Amino acid sequence: MNVSPNAREAETLIARLDWTTTPLGAAGQWPQSLRTAVDIVIHSPMPMMLLWGQHLTQIYNDGFALLAGNKHPQAFGKPVDLAWPELKEFTAPI
Hints:
Blueprint: H1 9-16, H2 32-43, E1 49-52, E2 57-60, H3 62-68, H4 80-83, H5 88-91
Antiparallel strand pairs: 1-2
């Protein structure tokens, strides 16, 4: 995946992450609904995070990266319970 020189950080992370090591699998195999949701999140002017699939794999935009603090960028592309174990009680019902 090519990254434009004006890319947002989240776009760069999406392009460089080996998605085959995540529950989402290869980015080229993502369903259209996931690709559309990611596009909405990445281009939103508001901080947003997308949780997708059984493992609640997270993809978020640059605004949310600021809120993630020291969890970023390691949390990007990880299941929410691995990145935010302290929120397990909150995320378990999702």
